[in-house]
């Protein structure tokens, strides 16, 4: 520095301006040297490291490269050069060292954050990551890194020990709890979700309160992201999965069977005892042949044993078309290739109501894939609705405008003798419509 000032003074420059120009020239030289060193580091050293990493058979080093851990680390080189030449400015040596220390602190924080993100990415390559995600813990560590980095930067500027600042943090604990309330709740919720195995990435969950109905795509410290079936994204607070109720469909998917629980409503006016002709017709149905023979023998033995007078239909036991219909559906489900044989298969009556008698099918399809499930369910009910008239049954349906129009036309017809009485006419026509 002195030689440079003497050289400028020899050129006729005053001592004051020689000192200023000397400092400027030296700053420019250090800046150019820092830029050159940074360029060499990124264009030469990092390129060599990248080529070596891409040739290895390990995946974790590629993830470190993708997260730019080495790129962020390269920013340390200019700081080292500036720190090395800071002794050339004795008047500003302390300020330069503080600035370099704060810059190194910031670079260190960025490197650690990138490394933690890389650790999470490496962990996600393992299957256990779906059951035990660690992203929430990683984010909490990143928060602590930023807090510690901020304390070190402030202590460097103030020239005080970081321990003094940490002792003052206790007084601000209430403020910190308020600021990081969601993060702390999310951390506790993440621990409970992971330890109790309540939700995993890829699970199908339903949470109507937040409008969520879809697959979990991300679990972080504060939020859980759900991609709904309409491809929208719903963000749920992580602690809401602990404080509120939600439905997880993972059990259904892991069981290998998806439930059918749907009813067919039968018009009660079409239910009656089976005639001999109907029983003979039912016996020709493949699924019912053994059932009809066994049931007929059972009923006949009961009536004969108890001396039942069968001259009236009410006496004793007899088959009904609704009972035979239930038996047919049960045998149909038991022989259906897409119904899970290891799970419940049941056809039951529910309580009659204004819409008729519900005949509920309760069974499980042997696939959990949505479109295949809906196809099997539709095929089953297509068949049930089509065969109901073969048993003398009518599926209930509220009369439409067309039915009332037909009723009005028949009522206004001049030939009244061929039509039923006015009292019986509405029910007759409505049953026909149903």
How would you characterize the overall build of this protein?
This protein is of the alpha+beta class. The protein is 57% helix and 11% strand. The chain has 19 helices and eight strands. The chain has helices spanning 2-10, 15-55, 60-66, 69-73, 76-85, 93-124, 128-131, 135-158, 162-169, 173-179, 181-195, 240-243, 250-255, 276-283, 289-305, 321-334, 370-387, 401-411, 425-433, and strands at residues 204-207, 212-219, 223-228, 233-237, 247-248, 258-266, 346-349, 357-365. The strands form two sheets. A five-stranded antiparallel beta sheet has the order 4-3-2-1-5. Strands 6-8-7 form a three-stranded antiparallel beta sheet. β3 (223-228) and β4 (233-237) form a beta hairpin. α6 runs antiparallel to α8 (135-158) and α18 runs antiparallel to α19. The protein starts with a helix and ends with a helix. Mean pLDDT is 81; it is low at 416-434.
